[in-house]
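Q: Please design a sequence for this.
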C-alpha cells in the first residue's frame, strides 16, 4: 500500500497537471478564437475593398456613358470658350448630386441597422455623427476622383472631331 504522503503528493500532481492541461486547452481555444476573429476581419476588409472597387468601376462606366452622350455639348461649350475646369464642374456636379442624395437616403438606414445590431452586445457604444460624416466624405471623394478623370478626358478632347460627325 502507498503511504498517505505519497497518495497526497500523487493527487496533488495529478490535479495540477490536469488543471494545467485544461488551462492549456482553454488557452488554445482562446487563441484560436482570436485568430479566427482576425481572419474574419481580413475577409470583411477584403470584401469592403472589393465592393468599393466594383462600385467605382460602375461609376466610371456611368461617367463614361454620360460624357459620350454629351460630347457634342462639350464641343460646343469649348468652342464658345468654356475652360476644362468649367466642363469638369458641369459633369461632376451631376454625379455629386446623386452621391449626396444617396448619402441622405443611406445614412438613417445605416444608423438604424447599426443601432439595432449594437444593442445585442453587452458593452454598448454610441454611434456619433462623425462616422457617417467621414463615410460621406470618403464616398464623395472617390466619386469626384472617378468622375473627374472621365470628365477631364472628355474636356481635353478636340471639339472639332466631336462636331464633325454632323
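A: Design:
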Amino acid at each position: 500500500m502507498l503511504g498517505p504522503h505519497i497518495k497526497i503528493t500523487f493527487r496533488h500532481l495529478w490535479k495540477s497537471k490536469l488543471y494545467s492541461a485544461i488551462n492549456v486547452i482553454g488557452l488554445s481555444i482562446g487563441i484560436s478564437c482570436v485568430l479566427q476573429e482576425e481572419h474574419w476581419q481580413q475577409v470583411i476588409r477584403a470584401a469592403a475593398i472589393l465592393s468599393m472597387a466594383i462600385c467605382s468601376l460602375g461609376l466610371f462606366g456611368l461617367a463614361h456613358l454620360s460624357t459620350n452622350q454629351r460630347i457634342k455639348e462639350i464641343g460646343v461649350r469649348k468652342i464658345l470658350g468654356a475652360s476644362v475646369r468649367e466642363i469638369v464642374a458641369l459633369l461632376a456636379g451631376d454625379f455629386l448630386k446623386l452621391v449626396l442624395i444617396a448619402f441622405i437616403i443611406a445614412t438613417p438606414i445605416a444608423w438604424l441597422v447599426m443601432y439595432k445590431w449594437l444593442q445585442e452586445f453587452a458593452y454598448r457604444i454610441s454611434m456619433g455623427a462623425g462616422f457617417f460624416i467621414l463615410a460621406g466624405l470618403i464616398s464623395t471623394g472617390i466619386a469626384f476622383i472617378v468622375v473627374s478623370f472621365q470628365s477631364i478626358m472628355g474636356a481635353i478632347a478636340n471639339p472639332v472631331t466631336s462636331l464633325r460627325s454632323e
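Q: Thanks. Anything notable?
A: The mean pLDDT is 80. The chain is about 85% helix and 0% strand.
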